[in-house]
Design goal:
This protein is an all-beta fold. Helices cover 0% and strands 36% of the residues. Strands 1-2-3-4 form a 4-stranded antiparallel beta sheet, with no helix packed on it.
């Protein structure tokens, strides 16, 4: 069967009760980013399901989508407030 019906990992720290929000898998396949209704984006470790970072960078409304830069270690989030926010890791690897 092409898809198993058993869930193998859940990512549940972000808020998603009403609006449609986006999710993205990093090019290195180590991270998942999600939008959230709490005006932040979340970065998860794909292996453990743990939150690596809550990216709260000034959005005033639902973070509706996220995307990874395919070349540089960056995540961009967009919001219903019309804004885009770029997040990058520093030299220590944290966001």
């Amino acid at each position: 069967r092409p898809w198993a019906s058993d869930c193998v990992r859940s990512f549940t720290n972000h808020m998603n009760k009403r609006e449609r929000i986006g999710v993205a898998i990093s090019p290195c396949l180590r991270y998942i980013a999600t939008g959230s209704e709490d005006r932040a984006a979340y970065l998860y470790d794909i292996t453990t399901g743990n939150v690596i970072s809550r990216l709260a960078g000034g959005h005033r409304d639902v973070v509706s989508d996220v995307a990874f830069n395919p070349v540089h270690p960056q995540v961009v989030s967009c919001s219903f407030d019309g804004g885009l926010r770029f997040f990058a890791t520093d030299s220590t690897g944290s966001t």
